[in-house]
Amino acid sequence: MQSLFTGNKRENPEPVKAEIQGRIPQWLHGTLIRNGPGMHKIGDTVFNHWFDGMSLLHSFTFENGEVSYRSKYLQSDTYKTNIEANRIVVSEFGTMAYPDPCKNIFSKAFSYLTHVIPDFTDNCLINIIKYGGDYFASSEVNYIRKIDPRSLETLDKVDYRKYLPLNLATSHPHYDRNGNTYNMGTSIAEKGKTKYLFVKIPNIKPEQTDDKKDTCFKNCEILCSIPCHSLLNPSYYHSFGMTENYIIFIEQPLKLDILKMATAYFKGVNWASCLTWQPNNKTYIHIIDKKTKKLLPTKFYTDALVVYHHVNAYEEDNHIVFDIIAYEDNSLYQLFYLKNITLSDREFEAQGKGFSLPSCKRFAIPVEYDKNTDMGVNMVKLQDTTAYALKEKDEYVYCKPEVLFEAVELPRINYDYNGLKYRYIYASGVHWKPIPTKILKCDVQTRSCLEWREENCWPAEPVFVKAPEAKDEDDGVLLSSVISTDAKKSSFLLVLDAKTFKELGRASISADLHLDLHGMFIPEEELSTKQ
After folding, report:
1. Which of 280, 368, 471, 521: disulfide with 318, CB 3.0–4.6 Å?
2. At CA 290, angle to CA 288 and CA 292, rounded to 5?
3. Cα Rg of the chain, angstroms
4. In this structure, are residues 467 and 521 in contact, taking their beta carbons and an 8 Å threshold?
5. In this structure, are residues 124 and 144 in contact, taking their beta carbons and an 8 Å threshold?
6. CA 511 – CA 502 distance, rounded (Å)
7. Are the C-beta atoms of residues 301 and 320 closer than 8 Å to each other?
8. Is the pLDDT of residue 203 over 70?
9. How is residue 11 annotated by DSSP?
């Protein structure tokens, strides 16, 4: 277990041919790119938190039933600075770093004094996202790094702040049918106000204009802004939901303390300690109309919860239905400190390292309802959910979700159904420790699940790839990078039939695979247009 999270993984910049067992579909052409932490020790220094490790990109390329693998560390400014110093000198969210004592610390200190928000790391280790015709490694701050999806070479560094007043942004944007990208972020203390901004980045490729650099960002549009309830305590969020006509944002009572963040360096605390959980506060559900670009006036809310991942959302009979993965508290982040996550199961249990298991919850929001409805009356008229919404005074509506599935995380869907009524969720199954042990196919219609698991195997987030001429929602395959801790077996790329959930094949890799976070499959035809 310890080897899953500690130590440094070797990169493989040149393609490594995989050994195939079973059968890889001949129609599967393209590249699966994944992102996650691969280096946790630099010199004699070690990161405190698993999420702080240096970004290691890796890819699986499929062609004619064969698979090749490669991996490269993201050549961020952060990575280069740390490697040159042979120690951790750039702070990450769970690790506060300090300059070499032999160097002048005053310039570093001055930068913290003159900025309410410190300059964040560009160690973009969470996901791969697409803007226009380009691909980027991303985290949750203002920096993203353009990459070459074939070679994994690190290219330009992009600062959102050059185009938008964003200090924070999600690594889980949405894409519409025209390839436009929608994302959201937080603008902190800009002109005395803190806001949540919702933006549209058009699908403009550099070759389509005379301006060949950052074209899509230069043409981005702010769709809507929502004032934060508190100037210096914005909500933390990791993703959001989107239907054809609406954007769903959950403002949860997991708050970022900006004043504490501004002084964290001098107080010797990390940025993670600047997150405060407020269990007695409400969780607000904001609904933005994409056409009017305005927030719906009704104040929808639910009980305190923590959500990282939205699953999907759709509209039905004047309701918005959305599914999320929710926790009862903020214990998840604490458990990924290396001192906790590397405990054996016995030590973990003995030390009482409790963990609020995630559950998939369904909310139903009545967008249009009779204003004369009596208070305390359920306004949800849908027949296939037990979620309800109760009218209260002053245009407040209390929303109670239905629990669809327990102990699931890292949800993915057939993205053709994003924003539409759908049936299947593909996800990782977790037990009493927040580490995926199986892959699930969750049927929201029957509320039943299929699963794949294997002893001493730790599967990553499953990614759905639809089959050519697919007719059903589950016509396709699931791809998952699986780490094996069995000394007699290599780690491998698993290919499952998404409909039957039977294993089609696996591509065993003679390389140092690492646990990753998120990624995307890029069809060969999209890669070919970049030549």
Report:
1. 368
2. 90
3. 23
4. no
5. yes
6. 26
7. no
8. yes
9. P
Give DSSP secondary structure letters for 478-504.
EEEEEEE--TTS--EEEEEETTT--EE
Per-residue pLDDT at 373:
85
Phi-psi region of 313 (alpha: psi -120 to 50; beta: other; left: phi over 0): beta
In sequence order, the β-bridge partners of residue 452 are 439
pLDDT at 382 over 80: yes
What's the Cα-to-Cα distance from 260 to each of 110, 167, 255, rounded to whole Å? Answer: 17, 16, 12
CB distance 408 to 362 below 8 Å: no
* pLDDT score at 84: 96
User: DSSP character for 51?
Assistant: G
Residue with tokens 């003159």: 114
Question: Any idea of the CA torsion for 95, 98, 99, 105, to the nearest 10 degrees?
Answer: 150
Distances in Å between the alpha carbon of 428 and those of 20, 171, 448, 486?
24, 19, 15, 20
- CA distances in angstroms from 373 to 284, 378, 482, listed in the order given: 21, 9, 52
User: Are residues 496 and 505 in contact, defined by beta-carbon separation less than 8 angstroms?
Assistant: no
Containing 251, the helix (H) or strand (E) segment is: strand 246-251
Cβ(448)–Cβ(425) below 8 Å: no
Q: To 5 degrees, how large is the angle CA 471–CA 476–CA 480? A: 160
For the record, the structure tokens of 472 come out as 């059903």
**Model's pTM, two decimal places?**
0.94
* Alpha helix stretches (DSSP H) within 242-299: 258-262, 264-267
Read off the pLDDT band of 105 (50, 70, 90). very low
Take residue 476 and report the two structure tokens written for it.
């396709």
Rounded Cα gap, residues 530 and 482, in angstroms? 29
C-alpha pair distances (Å), 199 with each of 169, 217, 224: 10, 10, 7
Question: Which residues lie across from 364 on neighbouring strands?
Answer: 321
| Backbone φ, ψ for residue 42 (5° rounding) | -130, 115
Of 461, 514, 477, 422, nearest to 172 by C-alpha is 461
